User: Fold these one by one.
Assistant:
Number 1:
Amino acid sequence: MKKTWIVTLETYLRQIKSWSFFFMVISPFLMIALTVGISYVSADSAASSKQIAVISDSATLRQSYLKQHATGVNRKITQPTQAKKAMRENHLAGYLTLSTTTDRVRADYHGNNSLSSGTQAQVQNFLSQYQQAQNYQDAKLTAKQQRLLARTPVFKQHIATKAGTTNLTRTISFWILITMIYIILITYSSITAQEIASEKGTKIMEIIFSSTTATSYFVGKIAGIMLVILTQIGIYLLGGWAGYSIAVNNAALKPLLADNQALINGVIHNLFNINLLFLFLGVVIYTILAAYSGALVAKAEDASKAAQPVVMLSMLAFFAAFPFQNNLDALAVKILSYIPFFSSYFMPMRIINNTANWGEQLISLTILLATIGLFALYVGRQYQRLMLQTDSQNLWQHLLKRLRHQ
Amino acid sequence: MLSIQHISKVFGPVKALNDISFDVPQGQILGLIGQNGAGKSTTFHSILNFIHYEGQIQWQGHAITATDFDQIGYLPEERSLMTKLTIEQQILYLARLKGQSAKIIRPQIDDWLARFAVKGTRRSKIKDLSKGNQQKVQLICTLIHHPQLLILDEPFSGLDPVNADLLKQAILTAKQAGAAIIFSSHDMENVTALCDQLVMLRKGNIVLHGTLEDVRNQFGKTELYVTTDWTSERLATLPHVTQVTSRHANHYLLHLDDANAGPAIFDALTQGHYIEEFSQQPPTLDEIFRLKVGEDQ
């Protein structure tokens, strides 16, 4: 056990101290930061050229408009000459001149392009309100008369929001979960196969197998890789939590998050339940398969070749899940949710959509755990022979040979 | 004591080992010699349970299991280390796998590096070391936990004479500490200098086994070293002389087909006069090796 832990620790530390691990972990954060940064800079520079100036001889009229429409207006420009210069330098989309005659309020827009429909509606709305107030004043109406004239009809839409949110929650949860499983499997299948194959190439295994048993070493190796995976998931969870905390305290995002709180809670619930266990065990069984496959190659350069069957199997399970996301009662889904290597994709799909009861989940989990145990035992026993042999066979050739032999 | 009894191993149609038996007591060194493919590495792999074999191998009276691994030091034929690690990390990792505590091993590392004159510090990366220094680090990894059974596959391969002497000294130190040592080598000089007994394998069979003296004496004293003013042509006319080899001026090696011919040759050469050298000896290990290999060809 102590030697297994020594191997686990060595594998873990060597992986997490590598630059490749650092870049692998940091790259999603960099991409998000880059995307947000570019969007911000681009939005900021575009925003200034999309602004309009509001010019009026009447300070009251201008202030009334600015009070109602704070965004999209360059407040610094107050004169037509300033506005024309800013337009020439592409810092302004146009300018609006507001004026009043004896009984009418008027707006003129000067720009290279016509106003957007939203801004047009804003201007139209402002003018109507201002004109109405002016009219009421000129007509000398009482307060009661003004209230009566201000009456408007009522129109309200009643949407079954709960059902809509539930469906959206399921769809988002499904995509996040299977994409997470797929990306982790694809990444770590190659890393595992490479890790194992690189040692086989160096023949250091003879020294190691004169110090500890192959099973102990194999278990240590897999445990080390699992720790690396858990570290990466942990960092992402921390990053997600930090991002969420920042978003919650951000004035611009707070209303958006508040509006979608039910959706967010639903997705988090779907991810942090038994599905996470299926994800983890899926990664374990694929990692063992990748290690087994890596042990079959003769040299490190063949590691990518060795990982291919594992990657293919993972891709098959991933893409097989697509057509069934809206047809979860299909017999194929029920069968595949019990078959190891597939159950990590298909059982979470059923759990998210509430089509698998606790008994079914437990049976699937038991089958998966038993398969992992037996598979690890089998590979552990074969490991020394595989690591010390010098012939190169891929996974299928090896399995065929074993079957023929038996 | 390491006891190997009647072990055989077959790889497909090839019989790699055929009924091999020998013992290596504590505090003794056994040299395993033979041509490439004779079965030396297969013998080592059998001792270490890397391969399945027929027969019985025992260490201290029982079959070797994982619990004995901590007492074994093994140097494989092909040198190999984890090149991304530092010297210290590499030594500590392998020592910890041998059941040693890092606290005990860490303070010893500098001494071992100095003893083997490794060009580098404990923080040097393995990949930055020369091939010879990597080999020395690997030797340190093999010896640092003071194994009671030392298995060295071609330990002198690639070492210059100075470093070979350092290794010889380390092997003798381990012997004095009571280790049973078995090593293979193509260098008969090292085998002669170190071994208490030797085993020669040929195509998986033992063709020679015993102490160096016993093995040499099996061949009789058929080598005659003489210093004389006779010419090589004249020496060749002496009875039972099959070959005359000139070593240097007036120094000759006569090969005899009968070890009993010595006295007659002595009389003929001296004729009552003094000669500088007349030494009748069995063949050297190197010559025996060539002879045995020659028999096969």
Number 2:
Amino acid sequence: MKKVNWMVVIAGVAVGIAALALSALGNPANMGFCIACFERDIAGGLGLHSAAKVQYIRPEIIGLVLGAMVMALAKGEFRAKGGSSPATRFLLGALVMIGALVFLGCPLRMVLRLGGGDMNALVALIGFALGIFIGAQFVKRGFSLKRTYTMGAAEGIALPAFLIVVGVAFVAFRALFKVSEEGPGSMRAPFFIALAIAIVVGALAQRSRLCMVGGIRDAMLFKDFKLLYGFLAILIVTVIGKLALGGMGWGKLTPFQLGFENQPVAHSSHLWNLLGMVLAGWGSVLLGGCPLRQLILAGEGNGDSAVTVFGMIAGAAISHNFGMAGNPDANGVVGGISMTGKVFVLFAFAVLLVISLVNMPKGAKKQA
Amino acid sequence: MVDARGYSCPIPVVMVQRAVKAEDPKSLTVLVDEQVCVENVTRFAKASGYSVTVTRDGNDFKLELKK
């Protein structure tokens, strides 16, 4: 058996336990964490979209960035940097978000849903792996968004500062923000407990380099399984936790429920779950990390990831304003996405292909 | 020599992988500027049969790979 990196496993176990705890404490089912959904909720809380059921300033996003920042500073890894194709990264962030919202989950929530028995996440995983495979073909042949440069400290703290200001303003002047009273946005663990849990997880994720895309990507590119063990640790902890504790009075933790239909905050429109995650996987490989990893890197002072996060928030707003996000299954009717959403997903693939091709090295041949 | 400074993983590892595949060098110098890249390049190099020595040079790291 290949040598297991224990730090990643510990981080994965912590993420799994934290997610179970957050769902028990009030976050939506199979959504202890969801970087896509939560950034979308923040977009809603800020009034960037008007989908009333998904508006709330999620402290988990703030905590993950802060935890990563504290750990990076402690280990001397905080370095303000940026300048690596920021406009492209903003667009890629938006496209990854739109893809993830079609499925109704970021890659981390995909793992949590799978652990909860939601088999739509298995369809999504296939799409995700396919998207990673496609992106990896470009990376393997020299795709690059060009190098990054050292920046002034202000660039490194721009996103953490933005999130802190939003968080403080939300606590102090809640009435200024939009807050859902029904739907997933209304399902939330207590603000400061969620913040504290996310800070711990953010610190561990920074230390361990945890990344949902990196796991599959590195296995494909280098036969390196280090990050994949983290992915598996989250899955195993979630399955065990849901089976052992779900529906048994541990707060609001729902039971393990195996199947496709009527899963919580999910739909079973298989083709689009698959394609949405192809989009998310491919885009994330081009960006160098999954949405969780972008938050962690932003906490380390990485301005490239910060602009990606801003792009994701913008993408979430666009997704809901144009009705492109997934509609959950309800009352026996399979949910899915609108025609606008379907057309956009196909258009987004074309955009990804263009971005992939124009960022190849000059004179790139088909060298493997 | 592979100068991967300014690039985030996995690109430095891909650059080393391409160099190793193209030339199968007995020794290779790799420059990176992130601790993560040191870890990832080291893991890849060792799996490819190289020994790795790391020296720090300001904000940069120099990895000497030897077979």
